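Example record used in the benchmark description.
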Amino acid sequence: IGIWLVNPPPMVASLASLLLISMLIDRTCSGLISAIHAHGRIMLHEVLNSVVWVAGLAIGWHLIAHCGMSILVVAWVRMSIIVILIVQRVFLWKFQLGFAVRPWLFGFLVPSVFAIVASMGVGYLLRCKMNPSFIRLVVCTVAQVLVMSVLSYRFVLSYEDRAFVRERLLVLAARLKGAR
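Model output (C-alpha cells):
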C-alpha cells in the first residue's frame, strides 16, 4: 500500500487484510456451493473445480506461512490453478461432451496467448523506456489494452464475431452522434 500512498492512513493495512480474507472465504465457499448444486454430467467437473480451488488456497497459505515465500507466490498459484482448470475443462469438453478440442486450441487458445504475450511485451518495453511515474503507468496500461484489443479483434475473433463487433460499434457511434 505504501507504493501508491506515500503515507498510508493507519487503518488501511487492516482494511486491506480484511478485504483479502473476505475474498479468500468467498472464493472457497463459492466453489463448494457450485459443487453442491451441480447435477448430471457437469457434477464431476464442478466437484473437481472446487477441489482445485480449495487446494490452491491451501498451497498458497502453506507456501507463505510455512515456507516463508513472498505474497507474490499466491498470484503464481492462482495462475497455475487457472491453467489446471482450463486443462480440466478441455478434458470435460472432449470426453463428456464430445467437443472437438483442436479447432478451439488453434482457433482461440493459441491466438489468445499470442495477443497476451504481445501486449505484455509492449507494456514491458514501454516500462523499460520510461521513467517511473503515474504517466508511465497510464501509458503502459493504455498501450497494453490497445494492443490486446487490436490483436484479439484480428486473430482471436472469427469473421462473424468481427462483423458483430463492427455492427455494434456502428450502432454506438450513431447513438453518440445523435446525442450531440
